[in-house]
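Deliverable D5.2: sample structural annotation.
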Amino acid sequence: MERAEIMKRVIGILTESQEIRRSHEAGGETGPVSEPGVVTLLLSEMMPHFSVPADATPLQVGRIVGETLAPAMHTIVGAFAAAFHSLAAVHDSGRTDITSMDVLREMALRVEAGAYDHGLDHGQPDDNGPDHGPDEGLDGRGPDVV
């Protein structure tokens, strides 16, 4: 799965969790749901599928699982870290005119514009696309500008 697709799913998970929180605060249903929720579905879509030979030793199983899941987990954690950074930057700036949902919408627009196509690691030179620095929004004024 491409990094941009993972970022879209992370934004979807965060958006869905906001909706769940709002529903809970409004006195909505808070108990377990019989069908998997959007969060569960999005997470399962991000995880790679793999098979283990029936005669594999525990060491081989561990190696297969590690080699298969480690890159996916690295990318997923990077996507959540990027989302956290964007949300924290707005919070830390003291802006009260921008909601977390506004930030998530801005992030979704940036993903669609190609900002997360190349990488999510902060050490990579093109981590938010070729036209935007790590702290720039689409308008170039920073992540806290929606």
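Annotation notes: Confidence is low (pLDDT under 50) at residues 121-146. Residues 58-93 form the longest helix (36 residues).
The annotation will be released with the project's public dataset once the embargo ends.
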